[in-house]
Design goal:
Length: 582
């Protein structure tokens, strides 16, 4: 079954059951600055899950474009894609578990209207219960009423079977469906089930979320006004299942592009590079068609990274940087997707990608000059995005020896740091994101800068905590602040607040941020690319620059009057200040 047929069967199946088909929303969220992209089908529907009336009614079905770029390093394996399509049916305070489960089962197994999958190859999970919600007996009974044997239903904890889009918003227990990719997995114990999933002998194909709860600041705070259903079936995975392939790269969605890369690369072909080019060029196409252009921050930065990573992989395959290989690869996707997404036929897309390819070629040339000056290959890789393969090649041409072992050691350490910290880092260390805390967060940056200016340039931040009422900073300092120092610090912060400084976020390689002396928390670990907040005047002269994920106000004039409440010792050489905005 072709991918087009799968999409249309899904939509029709639910249309026949009273659902209205809605088009995919843009990849860039319209009214939600807290996320860069729609990462799940539910994101554009959040207001309706919270109770606002949807113009199309209470039953909806769609195929939503999604982009997830949190785990770019995983791309190239069988299951991760930076772009994917999520098929979903939605109940906005209408039907609940019974119809959801019945229809999921029917769509999966019906030959006439659905996918016609063999029930003997299906497995199911349900929520095992915790302090927020009980064991989902109802879901279990419903699956069993459809003929699913009890031992094929596995109860799992919240970690696996509680779905929420993040720390805030609608959420709830879920029930997932899995498919045996090999055809002979058979019955499994719970341990066997977990193991088979790891080995990709079985894969998750659909998730039914019973969205009747709400989360705030990472905690479930209670029930929503209405009981909703959010289901998500990844088109890429279902297509792989339907075409008997281990991965979507071998399906009608992606195999054509993979083959043409193979042809072009010839002997230098390697599967991972080809997969990355395929994945990233498709994402670039969809992002640009939704209005994103390459830039140094936010969505534009992600796009730029995708294009550059793809260019580098093309280089790995021996393809010249001058070939515009990524933009040409993208063109091959236009035919595959244009019937479903007419926005990708926009002819600017090719130009935007190929311009970016040219720009990157220039960046690489700069890196080359640095290289000729004898710059460490590690710095070249992290600051200029200069691939080690290229460095090695050039070094060989010029008869220079490169210490590859030293390079790999530094890179491994660097990557380890970026993986462990990227998730936490971008949260920015705040209790929650309401306006009061955001203002205090900006004041916190200003306080650190003022302490360094008034008391000592050696002061370093050792910890921070912000609530709605006050900010708290721990910092290194060898003495109790005098009343005069406290007064001067307060005055300086208030003076800068009045000056109406701009608060500007910039993303840059870690090494560059370190070079310009951006403040980082002592002992914290940071990813390869960091976001830095500058508090600066019109001329761009900074009062403060700090590694931080935000959020912040955009101008200090929004802050009000700053006041230190308390200054005290925490431990030897570490002091603490609590302060407020009035
Ligand atoms: N929101 C759920 C998911 O993304 C179901 O659509 O898996």
């Amino acid at each position: 079954m072709q991918s087009n047929e799968i999409r249309s069967r899904f939509l029709k199946f639910f249309e026949h059951r009273g659902h209205k088909i809605i088009p995919s929303a843009s990849l860039v969220p319209e009214n939600d600055p807290s996320v860069l992209f729609n990462t799940a089908g539910m994101q554009p529907l959040v207001p309706y899950l919270l109770g606002q009336e949807h113009p199309m009614g209470k039953r909806i079905v769609d195929v939503q474009k999604c982009v997830r770029t949190g785990d770019l390093e995983d791309i190239g394996d069988n299951r991760h894609f930076s772009f994917f399509e999520m098929m979903g049916n939605w109940s906005l305070g209408d039907y609940f578990k019974e119809d959801t489960i019945k229809w999921s089962y029917e769509f999966l197994t019906s030959k006439e209207e659905g996918l016609g999958l063999d029930p003997k190859r299906l497995y199911f999970t349900i929520f095992e219960g915790d302090e927020n919600a009980p064991f989902d007996q109802e879901a279990k009974d419903l699956w069993m009423s459809l003929g699913v044997p009890e031992h094929r239903i596995y109860a799992l904890p919240a970690e696996d079977n509680w779905w929420s889009p993040g720390d805030n918003g609608p959420c709830g227990p879920c029930s997932e469906m899995f498919y045996d990719m090999t055809g002979d997995v058979g019955d499994l114990t719970l341990e066997g089930f977990i193991e088979a999933n790891k080995k990709e002998d079985i894969i998750e194909i659909w998730n039914d979320v019973f969205m009747e709860y709400e989360k705030e600041n990472g905690k479930v705070i209670g029930k929503l006004k209405q009981k909703n259903v959010d289901t998500g079936a990844g088109l890429e995975r279902i297509t792989a299942v339907m075409q008997g392939k281990k991965t979507a790269y071998e399906t009608d969605l992606l195999s054509g592009v993979m083959n043409s890369i193979k042809e072009k690369a010839g002997e230098k072909y390697n599967e991972r590079s080809a997969r990355i080019i395929t994945d990233h060029s498709r994402s670039a196409m969809f992002l640009i068609s939704d209005g994103v252009i390459p830039a140094n921050k936010d969505q534009g930065y992600v796009l730029r990274r995708l294009i550059r990573r793809a260019v580098m992989q093309a280089h790995n395959l021996g393809i010249s940087l001058k070939d515009h290989f990524v933009s040409n690869t993208m063109l091959a996707f236009v035919d595959i997707y244009k019937d479903n997404y007419p926005e990708i036929t926009n002819s600017n897309i090719f130009k935007i990608i190929s311009d970016e390819e040219d720009k990157f070629a220039t960046t690489l040339e700069h890196g080359l000059k640095e290289f000729e000056k004898g710059v460490d290959p590690f710095i070249l890789a992290t600051t200029y995005g200069f691939p080690i393969e290229l460095t090695l090649e050039l070094a060989q041409e010029k008869g220079i020896k490169i210490d590859v072992e030293d390079f790999s050691k530094k890179m491994t350490e660097h990557q380890k740091l970026s993986q462990t910290s990227s998730a936490g880092m971008f949260k920015g260390g705040l209790a929650n994101h309401n306006e009061k805390t955001i203002r205090l967060h900006t004041a916190h940056h200003m306080l650190l800068a003022a302490l360094q200016e008034v008391v000592s340039p050696d002061i370093k931040q050792k910890g921070s905590n912000i609530t709605e009422e006050r900010l708290r900073i721990d910092f290194t300092c060898d003495h109790k602040l005098t009343d005069e120092e406290k007064k001067k610090v307060e005055d300086l912060v208030n003076e800068k607040i009045k000056a109406g400084l701009n608060v500007v976020r910039r993303e840059m390689p870690f090494i560059e941020a370190e070079k310009i002396g951006a403040q980082m928390e002592f002992g914290a670990k940071y990813p390869e690319v960091v976001s830095v907040y500058f508090i600066e005047d019109e001329k761009g002269s900074p009062f403060s620059k700090e590694f931080c994920g935000g959020p912040h106000v955009s101008n200090t004039s929004e802050l009000g009057h700053f006041k230190i409440l308390k200054e005290e010792a925490v431990s030897a050489g570490v002091r603490r200040i609590k302060a407020i905005l009035e």
